[in-house]
Amino acid sequence: MNNLLIVGQYVPTNSIVHRMDPRVKMLIIFFYVIFIFFANNVISYGLFTLFALGSTILTKVPRRFIAKGLTPVWFLIVFTFILHLFVTREGFVLFHVFGLPIYSGALEQGAVISLRFFLLILLTSLLTLTTTPIEITDAVESLLGPLRRFKFPVHELALMMSISLRFIPTLLQETEKISNAQASRGVDFRTGPFRERVRAVIPLLVPLFVSAFKRAEELAMAMEARGYRGGEGRTKLRELRVVKRDVAALVCFIVITAAALITRDYS
Amino acid sequence: MDITFEKVDYTYQANSPFEHKALDSMSFHLPSGSFTAIVGHTGSGKSTLIQHLNGLIRPTNGKVRIGDYVLEPKKKPKHAKALREKVGIVFQYPEHQLFEETVEKDIAFGPRNFGVPEQEIQKRVAESARAVGLGEDLLKRSPFELSGGQMRRVAIAGILAVRPRVLVLDEPTAGLDPRGQKEIMDMFYRIHKEQQLTTLLVTHSMEDALAYADHVLVLDKGKKYMEGTPVEVFSQREALQQVQLDVPEMFQFLLKASDQFGKPLAYQGQDVERLAEQLAALAGDRDE
Ligand SMILES: Nc1ncnc2c1ncn2[C@@H]1O[C@H](COP(=O)(O)OP(=O)(O)OP(=O)(O)O)[C@@H](O)[C@H]1O
Ligand SMILES: [Mg+2]
Question: Which sequence ranges are marked TM in the entry (chain B) (predicted)?
Answer without folding.
Answer: none
